[in-house]
Amino acid sequence: MTKQTFLQGTLILILAGMITRFLGFINRIVVARLMGEEGVGLYMMALPTLFMVMTLTQLGLPVAISKRVAEAEAKNDPQKVKRILIVSIIATSITSIVFTVGLMFAAPFVASSLLTDERTLYPLLAISPILPIVAVSSVLRGYFQGKQNMKPQSYAQVIEQIVRITCVAFFVKLLLPYGVEFAAAGAMISVILGEFISLLYMLYVFKRKKKVKIRTNFFSYLKSSKSTVKELFSIALPSTGSRMIGSFTNFLEPILVAQSLAIAGISSSLATKQYGELTGYIFPLLFLPTFITHSLSIALVPSISEAEANLNKNLVHYRIHQSIRLSFASGAIATVVLCLFSSPILTYMYGTDKASSLLVLMAPFFILLYVQSPLQAALQALDLAKPAMWNSLIGAICKLTVLFLLASNPSFGIHGVAIAMSVGVVLVTLLHFAALQKAIQFSIPLKDICKMVALIGVTWMVGSWIKDIYETVQPNILLFALSLLALVIFYIITLFMLRFITKEELIQLPFFKKWLK
Q1: Dihedral through CA 315, CA 88, CA 55, CA 35, nearest 10?
Q2: pLDDT at 134
Q3: If residue 432 lies in a helix (H) or strand (E), which one and from where to where?
Q4: DSSP 164-198
Q5: Residue 366 φ then ψ, to 5°
Q6: How far is it, in rounded angstroms, from Cα 209 to Cα 3?
Q7: Is the separation of the CB atoms in 291 and 20 below 8 Å?
Q8: pLDDT tens profile 445-470
Q9: Which range, of 264-273, 305-314, 349-358, 392-401, averages the lowest pLDDT?
């Protein structure tokens, strides 16, 4: 099975993430234009419940499998890899069955009593069959990540999005005449089909390239693998805790938003519409750079785990520094562009710029979100999943508290929700950094901090100048695209000048190797 270096694996994941994000944006635009703000609101209100149940189903095993398989590979122990796979398959199979049945029975109560909109019942029921599919996919993803082979899951991501975007318009149009709630359910069905086809692909690759046979008496093998169970769940449970906190917070979020905005005197229909704008229009833009940071995080766990297993502490520090530097570089340009060009971006994408004030408010704070992901991955790779979990809990409690206090105030309304989410992002990132500093004396040099400030400042100045030119000429989408291209080219040149990306790193990539040597 082909193994990639840290940067090679990251680049493969980034390219796949770029493609899937682009396809995902097309998918969102199609859904938004077909279903409207209310339909998007129903769709987005149902998703947090799904994410919470998916987190429970996976038990945090993808990260744990990735770390333990990487360690076993470093020690050349194929039997341990086999034990890891069997334990994981048994655990996720049981949880997926339990939570699929549970979600089906709980859906009416969740829709009517918690989400305060009975129409969310249909999307919740439509999405429940996805849990067993996700359970098996999570085990395979963790296995390939631990092998430091990022190609299978990258191809699977692209396949999943292609299937989803191919099906979503058909199912939404088919069911829209019956109501927006059925259209939202149709969008969920396309998600299931995409996940299923991508799972079939990963199973094919696994069967073709596996080096260990897993045909055995599962439960008798499980009894003899107690140490493996303990090793897996020492990471999996705190990781589940962190994700569960996030998923439970996201589950409570639409409920708390609906209740708080009701206290502020905003109707249920308008609250759903505003929440749809925030989560359906603003969030996809804010989370756009996370395909890069997420890719770095996935590749970081096995890389740090391997370095730690080989007692190479200098490499551990270097990898964390490298991932933070690259994550910040990917997020800084997004922050500047979203702040300066919020109105034209929303107008060209969704046909309205109503939510531009929310985007400008949140974008500067979300630059810390792009650094947060690799910090959390580093904590998990260093067996510090528990501190990461507690940090997530503290951040979630603070976010929900601020959300209720501000959103229920008529002076803030939906802007109070945006402020609360920004507070949560900043707090958790700072706590993760403090945990790493305490555990391994990790710190960011003052020189790098100065570079970060310079990168943002210079890009903002040039971006403001380009924006002024754009607005003085007759604005159109072609001129807008050329304006963004000019800013991105300047930004890339600045990255090299400030050494956010170095020649030594590019040489490690096959595409650049022959040109730069």
Answers
A1: 110
A2: 87
A3: helix 414-440
A4: HHHHHHHHHHHHGGG-HHHHHHHHHHHHHHHHHHH
A5: -75, -5
A6: 12
A7: yes
A8: 888 888 889 999 999 999 899 888 88
A9: 264-273
Q: Distance between CA 92 and CA 56 in Å, rounded? A: 9
Which residue is it, tokens 């956010």? 500
Tell me, what's the pLDDT at 216? 54
**SS3 category, 54:** helix
* Distance separating alpha carbons of residues 88 and 3, to the nearest angstrom: 22
What does the pLDDT read at residue 215?
Answer: 55
What pLDDT sits at residue 458?
A: 92
How far, in Å, CA of 36 to CA of 316, rounded?
Answer: 47
Is it the case that residue 228 has pLDDT exceeding 70? yes
Q: What is the pLDDT of residues 381-418, one digit of tens each?
A: 888 888 888 998 899 899 888 888 887 777 777 888 88
**What is the pLDDT confidence band of residue 116, given thresholds at 50, 70 and 90?**
low
| Summary count for the chain: helices (H), strands (E) | 22, 0
pLDDT grade, residue 429 (50/70/90)? Answer: very high
Compute CA 228 distance to the chain's CA centroid, rounded to the nearest angstrom.
28
Tokens at residue 159, please?
Answer: 């396949």
**Tokens 């580093």 correspond to what residue?**
378
Longest Cα–Cα distance of the chain, Å, equals 74
Separation of first and last alpha carbons in the chain: 28
DSSP letter at 310 equals T
Which two tokens mark 11? 């680049």
Q: Supply the pTM of this predicted model.
A: 0.74
CA distance 410 to 417: 12
447 burial class (0-12, 13-18, 19+ CB within 10 angstroms)?
exposed
User: What gap in Å lies between CA 254 and CA 481, rounded to an integer?
Assistant: 34
| Cα–Cα distance measured from residue 69 to residue 88, given in angstroms and rounded to the nearest whole number | 12
How many Cα neighbours within 13 Å face the side chain of 38?
A: 12
Q: Within its chain, how far is the Cα of 194 from the centroid?
A: 17
CA distance 299 to 302: 6
Residues 188-218: tens digit of each pLDDT: 888 888 889 999 998 888 887 666 555 555 5
Write the DSSP symbol of residue 75.
T
d(CA 83, CA 220): 11
- Least confident range of 175-179, 190-194, 335-339: 175-179
What single-letter DSSP state applies at residue 312? -
Distance between CA atoms of residues 121 and 104, nearest Å = 10
3-state helix, strand, coil in the chain (%, to 5): 85, 0, 15
Q: Using the Cα atoms of residue 29, residue 33, residue 35 and residue 37 in order, give the sign of their dihedral.
A: positive
Tokens 């396949």 — which residue?
A: 159
Q: Is the dihedral of CA 137, 49, 363, 242 positive or negative?
A: negative
